[in-house]
Amino acid sequence: MNIGVPKEIKDQEFRVGLTPAAAQYLLLQGHRVFVEQGAGLGSGFSDEQYTSLGATVVPSAEEVWQQEMVVKVKEPLSEEYDYLCSGQLLFTYLHLAANRPLTEALVQSGATCIAYETVELEDGRLPLLTPMSIIAGRLSVQFGARFLEKQQGGRGVLLGGIPGVRPANVAILGGGTVGTEAARMAVGLGARVQILDINVDRLNYLETLFGSRVEYLYSSAQTISAIVPDTDLLVGAVLVTGDRAPTLVTRKQVTAMRSGSVIVDVAVDQGGCVETLHTTSHSHPVYVEEGVLHYGVPNMPGAVPWTATQALTNVTLPYITQLARWGTAALERNPALAKGSNVAGGRVTHPIVSRVFPDLA
User: Is there a contact between 27 and 318 (Cβ–Cβ < 8 Å)?
Assistant: First the structure.
């Protein structure tokens, strides 16, 4: 199969769909790999690294998108919609439930579109989402600590405090992978940490990880209202596989926060879980609303592309190999991959996305 790897065009998205080593592996399997010129530079991979291993570097995105399968990192943007075509395989993050224009474009294209974030194992794990969730969770606190600095518009609070001065209060909504990693970073920096989740078993598990260093709370509207006013850094870490994130924090609750506090919503690519938050970018990562700094960058791992690209390719390569070998028949052979199918045959195929956009199913 001919496989295309375009250069990402999302704002400051420096990841790439395949490392040179992954491209070489596919080449050794008898496939051909076409990489857009400069696609790997942001992750530290030169064009020469790809060509030296046998891949073909092409000068334009159009040539890459003409291939049978396109492997990306982020969803196609409007400038790329016209490249999509019938019979093509697209393998990337999509997050369709919060993006009707993209969903409509994919349906109209006739392409088979498989989303990394909904590939799901029998036990419910999301193997292609997990490494990016780990990175995003850790970055949420790293960025949160930065924007709490006065020069960045924050309250001027040191996350870990010092002896004689209390540390910052960090509240994390959701105890999944993102929330766990956010807690790991916040605890490590010495913050006072609270994790909220509706799964008591998960809270019990988290206690085995962090012990008394974290406060574990059952998530409810009342609990959120009680803790938000005293929170310096609020991390949205909610995930409903394939669906929009529920709104857990209202505008009224945000107004109760101290001026200069920070909200980092990792769920923004699924619509976000904070009413006042909207998508931002690495170029303009924050804005102030109700006196609170809001961070809503949907491609947070793009800030650390050398790490993120390798972590992503480590988990996507086995699935890419199956798709390259069997085409759409791989969906029948691998149930986990089948759950990743979001659009095929001119209609939405994922059950949750179908519920969000019933007219496209």
Answer: no
* Coil/strand/helix, residue 192: strand
Q: What is the mean pLDDT of residues 124-146?
A: 97
Neighbour-count burial of 79, counting CB atoms closer than 10 A to its CB (0-12 exposed, 13-18 middle, 19+ buried): exposed
Report whether pLDDT(195) > 80.
yes
**DSSP-based helix, strand, coil % in the chain, nearest 5:** 45, 20, 40
- The CA–CA distances, whole Å, from 11 to 33, 144, 185 equal 25, 20, 26
DSSP readout, 206-269? HHHHHGGGEEEEE--HHHHHHHGGG-SEEEE----TTSPPP--B-HHHHHTSPTT-EEEEGGGG
Whether 95 is catalytic = yes
Closest by Cα among 221, 208, 205 to 273: 221
Q: Is the pLDDT of residue 26 over 80?
A: yes
For residues 186-204, give the mean pLDDT: 97
CATH number (3.40.50.720, 3.65.10.10, 3.30.420.10, 3.30.40.10) of 130-302 reads 3.40.50.720
95, 243, 294, 350: which is the annotated catalytic residue? 95
Give me the pLDDT at residue 99, please.
Answer: 93
Domain with CATH 3.40.50.720 in the chain: 2-119+305-360, 130-302
Q: Look at residue 320 and give its three-state secondary structure.
A: helix
323-333: buried (b, 16+ CB within 10 Å) or exposed (e) per residue?
bbeeeeebbee
Residues 81-134: pLDDT tens digits? 999 999 999 999 999 988 999 999 999 999 999 999 999 999 999 999 999 999
What's the pLDDT band for 270 if we cut at 50, 70, 90? confident
Residue 280: the pLDDT is: 96
At the fourth CATH level, which superfamily is domain 2-119+305-360?
NAD(P)-binding Rossmann-like Domain (3.40.50.720)
Report the SS3 class of residue 340. coil
- pTM of the entire predicted model: 0.93
> Do residues 282 and 317 make contact, with C-beta atoms less than 8 angstroms apart?
no
Q: Which of 197, 232, 243, 269 is catalytic?
A: 269
Q: What is the pLDDT of residue 120?
A: 96
SS3 153: coil
